[in-house]
Amino acid sequence: EYFRLHIYPHLCKFLGVSQSANMKILRETVKQANPEEDLSAVIENYEELEYCFRYSDVSHFAKRREQQVTKAITTTPVTSQQPLEEVPCNDDYGTWSVLLPICSRTVSQQAKSRHAHSSNQESSFNTNRFSELTQSSQYNGSFDEACWDLLSGFCKSLMETVPPSQMERFECIVGIDVDDKVYQPAKERLIAMIPCQVVFVDIQSTMYGKLCRIWNHLASKSRNDYIVLFGDDVRLLDYGWPRKIEDCFRNISMTTGLPFGAACVAMNDLSFPGFPTFPVIHRWHLKQFGTLLPKQFVNQGGDPFLYELYSRFKASAWEVSCRLENTIGGDGDARYQKYHINWRGHILNMHIRKLKKNVETKNSSGVCLDVVVPSYRTNNNDYLRRIALLRASRDGVYVKFWFVVDNPCKKHVDEVKELANELNTKQLEQSGNYFINVIHYGTNRGASYARNTGYNYSIADWILFLDDDVIPDDNILDAYIGGIQRFPNAKVLAGMTTLPEATNTWTTMLRVCNVGYFYGVSKLRRHPPWAVTANLLVRGSRHNPTIQFKECYPKTGGGEDIDLVYQYKNFYPTSGLHATAAVPEAVVKHPWWNGGNLCYKQIRGWAWGDSMCILEWPSKTFLTCPNWIEHVTFIVLPLTVYTKQPVAGLLVGSCVVALEHLIKMCRYLPSARKQCEEDGILYQLYVALGAGTVLSAQEITRVNSILRRFSLYSICRRVDWFDGQEPRIKLDIQFGSILRFVLNAGITSIGFGSYWQEWLG
User: How high is the pLDDT of residue 757?
Assistant: First the structure.
């Protein structure tokens, strides 16, 4: 009735309709779907959606978790984008080209080749394990028969592992140096020795030492289905390996829907486990790209490039049952100078884009995610083991672990290596995925250097930083992958780092002062301004190579995490607020520092580091009035010296300190009462006072850093922890600083009142 009399006339006038029109009251809107309805029956890509939100707080999926009906997604066969008849049936064998570069030149002759000047100090991110193949027969002294013995061993292993019915479909494309004095005159002997059809290709002197270009040259002569590069030092160990690899290609095509042949299958090299040596490629690759490898490659990076390229499409695989040994090569120093190129960025991206276009897909479905763990703590293999056993529940996730030992203790290095060898041996029985790499450099260079090392070694699209003392949830990889899919524009994903419940007075004080706010920031903000590197997922270095942890921050940490996230925001300015995203379901448990005992040293380290952010990121700072310690240091102390009144200075300084901690105690008292409900008011006051000293320790350290660095610019300047997201908090800090300064100035004026009277008189 009220609506009809008082609101309806105004509404009709606004709409320009007659008031005589009948008014029909609509019922309140109701939900259009039954909340108990099975969404999997109405959402076409429900499995993908469920994986993205599986561990989130969305009520539907939270209910599923409670009912324990969540199941791991298994890749279901999809219709191939090409006619099914193009996918060979299981009874059909493919044809094979074995690329076999052989030479008998001496090491000194090899060193004369172009690019031999490459520095030994060049970065070795892309170490290529078949870099030795062009020299596999080089021995000191007389070695003609040794060369033939080596080649004979390869031919024997090939004959013993390939079924006779399939050997008819094999050919060896043998590359021989034009000036080779052992093999060039003996081609008849080579034909008799090699158990399949042989094609000879001359290798010109301009290609000496450039294995990737030799590989391209030999592959261009192939007209067969499958192409693999071997050397005369390779020994094949498992019978029927070609059929297993062909089946692997077939499975990849059927499960991904990619054209048959759009894949890369790596064999299991026992001399360099975990590295995709001797990849098998299909002629489909040559048809699409025109060559096996980009022309920029010289003699390094070929095999990992191919594996990484197809892994973005869930089309890279290990066939661990196809074992071989590289009897002279392997994980050792190459017998000639390596020539590295940076293929991880632009070159790889260009080929990924071209492959997307060729297979007519908008998004690559494979996820390449590496885990980097800097390890300084000794006797923590239990923590490292738990991290190394993390697994994703879906296929198409390619993970490597990088344990960077930042401790010169040989015992610690050996223990970590032993753990990695144990777990890798078990994993290689199933797959070459989830391989553990251990890096050490014999000294302690700090957390930033260690993280940079793993970050730069990795070729993955995403890097998960974990501390070596955290306990991650088993589902953390799934949670982060779901976050990647929910926030496609994010470059930094912040997980949830939980701290234990308070166990004593000190940890209660830490809880009360909320010093760990940014450890759990993902629960509080959808797009956090920054987050701690104890549990942080970032875009891989191949996408943003200039972003690095800066070594100006403390070795033990502090400020480097803020700086890193700010670098990402600066590198991707168009992402804005969405450069970061919270993934609160990606949980790790972090212990109390120093075992829950006093840890002012840790707190001071943080403050020393974050004070560097003022100099590194001045645009992320703001001015306030002097705080209590700045007032004492830069006002009271100079006045005491100038007026020569030490007693007055001591009293004024004491009053300023007492007032500051009284204010902080009052500020933290409500939280202390909540934390200590069962304790008396005196204990609660004590806890509130102690909580204030945590913040005071940081403020004292920041002033100390100003004096040590002689950085006058940093005086009265604060870092905006919320990076502009909370202007109200910034305003509160500035307003509070004004009130404190007025009080402190009043105390100072009163304390030095006698001097002012004399001066005015």
Answer: 65
